[in-house]
Design goal:
Blueprint lengths: L2 E4 L2 E6 L6 E4 L2 H5 L4 H11 L1 E4 L6 H8 L14 E3 L7 H6 L19 E8 L7 E5 H6 L3 H7 L3 E4 L1 H6 L7 H7 L5 E4 L1 E3 L5 E3 L5 E4 L4 H15 L5 E4 L6 E5 L3 E5 L9 E7 L7
Parallel strand pairs: 3-4
Antiparallel strand pairs: 1-2, 2-3, 4-14, 5-16, 6-14, 6-16, 7-13, 7-15, 8-9, 8-12, 10-11
Length: 278
C-alpha cells in the first residue's frame, strides 16, 4: 500500500495498485469542502474512495455530497434507502436484486450518473460485500490490436435484460414496467471529455450493433471476464459507518448476495451525470 502525506492534502492509502483509495479524514474536514478537489480527482483516477467508520448522518451525507457535485433528487431529500426489505420500498427492493451482477448504473439512460455515495448503517451477518471493477484500467491493458477492433463498436443496453438475470419469467405487469425504460445504444468504448477511455459493459449490455447476435454476446462475455480480473477489482468488506464513493462512469460494481431479512440498510446519495457516453 502507498501512503501519501501532504500538509495541504488529506492522507491517503492506495488499497490495490489499480483501484481503491482510502482517505484519512474527519467529518469536519469533509464538510468544510476544503478537500473536495483532492477527493474528486482521486475518485476519477482511482474509481473508488473510502472513509472508514465515519458515521455521517443523512444531512451530513448530503452536505458532503454537494461539495463534489450536483445531488440527484435533492428536492425529494437526496437520500435513497438501499435495502432488500420490501417493507422499506417494495419496488426498490425488487429492482436491487439486479445489483448482484456486474453493472453500470443508468446504462440505459442518455447520461449515466457521475458517482454515488453509500453510507453503511446496518449490515448483514453474511454476504453484502461490494466489488468494483476499474473499466479505465481494463481498457488501458488491452492489446493495441484488440483496441483497434473494439473502437467504434456500439452496444444496445437494456434494463429489461438486466432484470431477467434475477427474474427470467416475468409477469406481464413486471415486463410492462421494465419496458418503460427503453434500450439505449452506446459506444462500447467511452471516450471521456478528459481524453481517457473506458469500457461500457455490465448486465445491461446485450447486442453489439452490426454483429451476429451470438458473436456479439460472446465478445461482451469475453470483455466482461477481462474487465473483472483480480488486478482490476477492489472488494469492500463493510463496517458500520463506512462511507464509500464510486465513479460510476469508470467502474462496474456488484454486491454479494445477502439475506433480504437481514436488516441490511445503506443510504445512497447520487451525483448527477455530467457527460453522455461518447
Amino acid at each position: 500500500m502507498n501512503t501519501v502525506v501532504d500538509q495541504a492534502l488529506l492522507e491517503t492509502v492506495e488499497l490495490t495498485p489499480r483501484i481503491g483509495t482510502e482517505f484519512k479524514a474527519t467529518k469536519e474536514q469533509l464538510l468544510s469542502g476544503k478537500y473536495a478537489a483532492q477527493i474528486r480527482e482521486t475518485l476519477e483516477q482511482r474509481g473508488v474512495v473510502i472513509f472508514r467508520e465515519l458515521h455521517l448522518t443523512k444531512p451530513e451525507q448530503i452536505e458532503f455530497a454537494e461539495t463534489l457535485g450536483s445531488v440527484q433528487g435533492k428536492a425529494q431529500g437526496g437520500i435513497m434507502p438501499i435495502s432488500l426489505d420490501k417493507k422499506v420500498n417494495a419496488w426498490v427492493a425488487e429492482y436491487l436484486k439486479g445489483s448482484f451482477f456486474w453493472h453500470i448504473d443508468g446504462a440505459s439512460d442518455d447520461i449515466p450518473n457521475f458517482a454515488a455515495l453509500l453510507n453503511a448503517h446496518v449490515l448483514s451477518a453474511e454476504g453484502g460485500a461490494t466489488s468494483f471493477a476499474n473499466t479505465y484500467a481494463a481498457w488501458d491493458d488491452l492489446p493495441e490490436e484488440e483496441k483497434e477492433k473494439l473502437f467504434g463498436l456500439k452496444v444496445q443496453h437494456s434494463f429489461e435484460i438486466s432484470q431477467r438475470y434475477v427474474n427470467p419469467t416475468p409477469t406481464v405487469e413486471e415486463l410492462t414496467l421494465w419496458q418503460q425504460r427503453k434500450p439505449k445504444i452506446h459506444p462500447l468504448v467511452w471516450t471521456h471529455r478528459s481524453g481517457r477511455k473506458s469500457l461500457v459493459l455490465g448486465s445491461t449490455a446485450w447486442e453489439v450493433q452490426g454483429m451476429d447476435p451470438a458473436e456479439g454476446r460472446m465478445l461482451l462475455c469475453k470483455l466482461q471476464e477481462w474487465a473483472t480480473q483480480p488486478q482490476f477489482v477492489y472488494r469492500h468488506e463493510w463496517k458500520v459507518g463506512d462511507l464509500l464513493i464510486w465513479d460510476n462512469t469508470g467502474t462496474m460494481h456488484k454486491v454479494d448476495p445477502y439475506d433480504p431479512e437481514s436488516g441490511r440498510m445503506m443510504s445512497r446519495t447520487t451525483l448527477e451525470g455530467e457527460e453522455s457516453i461518447a
